[in-house]
Amino acid sequence: MSFYSNLPSAGQSSRGSSTSGRNGVGLEPLYPTIFEIMSSQEIDSLLPASIRYLLANHLVANFPNRYTLRLNKYFFEWFQAIKGFVEWYHLKTYNSTFIDRFYGLQLFSSRDRNLALTQCLNPKGQSEWPQGLQLNQQQKSVIFLEKIILPYITAKLDEILEKISMNNIFSSDETENKWPKRAFLRIYPFIKKLLALSNLLVKLLFLTKRTGSVSLLQYLFKIEYTTVRPLSSELSGLKETKGMDNRLRKTNISSIFALMQGQLSIIPRFLTFMGSQFFPTFIFVLRVYQWWTTQDMTTKLQKRVNDLDEDIPRPPFSSHSDKTEDKEGVSEACPVCEKTVQNPCVLETGYVACYPCAISYLVNNEGHCPVTNKKLLGCTYNKHTNKWEVVTGIRKLLI
């Protein structure tokens, strides 16, 4: 992941851009490469599909009950709820989303342009991120809306659009009370394409290093991308007094508790480090596992297709059919009248006979084939007329 962070920015050598400030230096050194952002967005979109794949193929398939089925049915709802808590924690703590943080990405507020330019010019700006460039509450809410709420609403609207489209295909009646559905079919795809085009234009501006935003909402609310930097605290004065008191402390319960708390504070940092190492590995293993299972399923399907292509054995024939097959010219003669077939039809057993002969024979012989003597499924007995009837036992041939 750190490979992309070490790539030189294409806009660092450009001068006189719209983001330029003092001495011709702009905000280009702050922006990451487009590869980092696209990789992060791709993983963010693949993560729910991968988790649902594991849930459906292992938990639901091995333990099918009403709880696991409901868990799979309402997957998008509870997954978005959990993701919302995780994303809000990371936005509040790190000014970054869960996936972006593992790619070394961070969001900052570009409303104070002079402070951002000072951060580029000041060599010490690489050490910590000032409070004025951190996201405010409104900008964090916008990112939460873009990452959590809007994808959920879009997914539900896509489902409604698909249902309405399918209903219009299979139902031809159009009444006046369906005008909201017709308006939705016209307006929603147009708005969706318009937003996609707007996001594409913002990405083109990002490629030209005119902005650090990659979406329309980020561009409107002055939210831009940068690489991860430590955030400065509002109470930075406490850092100067920390560690100055080297006097002996009293060994009472409070001091012992404070000492243990200080020693245990390393656990969250350790868990964060392990998570940063485990998450990329988990994503890689998950993709390999999906590829492996897909290849295995493809092999099984190909094997089944090959088994179907094998020669199908002929069905067993009765002694009467064997005698009939030995007769000369049986393939061109009707098995009932033993003459040349006129007005041909085919029976369920695959043999051809004259249509009048076949009807007469089947009715008088309780629906049995004249060649194999097998009962035809298309011949039924009518209890009202006390006669056998040919329903679907034969088919006319057009020659």
Walk me through this protein's architecture.
The structure is a single chain. With 399 residues, this protein is mainly alpha-helical. It folds into 2 domains: 2-233, no CATH class; 330-396, Zinc/RING finger domain, C3HC4 (zinc finger) (Herpes Virus-1), CATH 3.30.40. 55% of the residues lie in helices and 7% in strands. The chain contains 14 helices and 7 strands. It has helices at residues 2-5, 34-62, 66-73, 75-94, 98-102, 113-121, 137-170, 179-207, 216-220, 238-241, 253-264, 266-308, 319-326, 355-364; strands spanning 105-109, 223-227, 344-347, 352-354, 379-382, 387-390, 394-396. It has a 3-stranded antiparallel beta sheet. It has a two-stranded antiparallel sheet with strand order 1-2. Strand 5 (379-382) and strand 6 (387-390) form a beta hairpin. The chain is elongated and about 110 Å long. Mean pLDDT is 76; it is low at 1-19, 21-25, 234-245 and 323-330. A zinc finger (RING-type) spans 334-373. Its main location: membrane. It is a multi-pass membrane protein. One of its GO terms (molecular function) is ubiquitin-protein transferase activity. Keywords: Membrane, Metal-binding, Peroxisome, Protein transport, Transmembrane, Transmembrane helix, Transport, Ubl conjugation pathway, Zinc, Zinc-finger.
